[in-house]
Amino acid sequence: MKNLKKIIVILGPTASGKTDLSVGLAKKFNGEIISADSRQVYKGMNIGTGKVTKKEMQGVPHYLLDVASPKKRFDVVQFKKLADKAIDKIYKKKKVPFLVGGTGFYIQVVVDGISIPNVKPDLTLRKKLEKKTVPELYKILSKLDPRRAGDIDKNNPRRLIRALEIVLKSKRPVPPIQPENPGFSSLYLGVKRDTKTLQKLIEKRLIKRLDEGMVEEVESLHKSGVSWKRLEEFGLEYRYVTRYIRGKLDREEMIKQLQKEIEHYAKRQMTWFKKDKRIKWIKDKKGAITAIDKYLNK
RNA sequence: GCCGUGGUAGCUCAGGUAGCAGAGCGCUUCUCUGAAAAAGAAGAGGUGGUCGGCGCACAUCCGACCCACGGCA
Known about the structure:
By secondary structure, the chain is α/β, with parallel strands linked by helices.
């Protein structure tokens, strides 16, 4: 197994300190970092996403940051394509890829080689389907693809519409999930914090972001042509700061609601991560170093 | 002191001609096939301010008291 390619995954909820940790580890283990964050891919979204600064990178190359315009759609498939490319590139340099981030879905798709049905989003079709009620959508899907209808969340319009999109455009049922061999083995390290600590970290970070000009960042994104609707879509900071700028919330309410929202998000992330038994939860940098050391020299 | 209004879930409150106690938020748990910071689901929480009365039965009707808020003195 010595020649098998290896990748190190570092994941955890927001505000748990992944960025800091990963730069240190990458430096130590001759690594380069691929960000697995669904919002840090966008240009101009820096403070609100907690993107590493040039200085914080300490010379460690980072991939998958600023690869998309916030005016355009970006999704898992694009992420996978770019991440696979970055991984190759890092191997060619004889370095170790560190996949670091909090977007579980993105990580899963890269590391487990989940292949997503090759049917491009069709916005016109989606718009049309959106007019139907959720039970209607489910009924149609049940007819066209009973298998998928059987395991889908039948209350979730977004899922139903995508399933129908696949069926209608490809003229065949949604294929069952089949993980493919990604061509490398992975070590999963999770950064965990107890709830109280995480809440405090989130709070501190939120104040810091406001001081650093988060509101101005959102204003400038809007000035550069990103619609309010789009900004709301990004969620968390971008959603609530937008509401504040537009006068729908006062500053105090914004902070309060945003804090709660981020806490919820962190919890959702943990729900995702918890079920993955491959993750080795580490306490500190030392624990991470020991684990990586052992893994790389196996 | 008098008058009025209110006291129902952790919070904000619905309802109530007596018949198994509700919502939103929060909390807990969960789902995830091209939006994933998105989109969804489930669950746990109540001696209905206190005491007494009438009733087969009271959160609901009657009385007293306590507490909060507003007005008058």
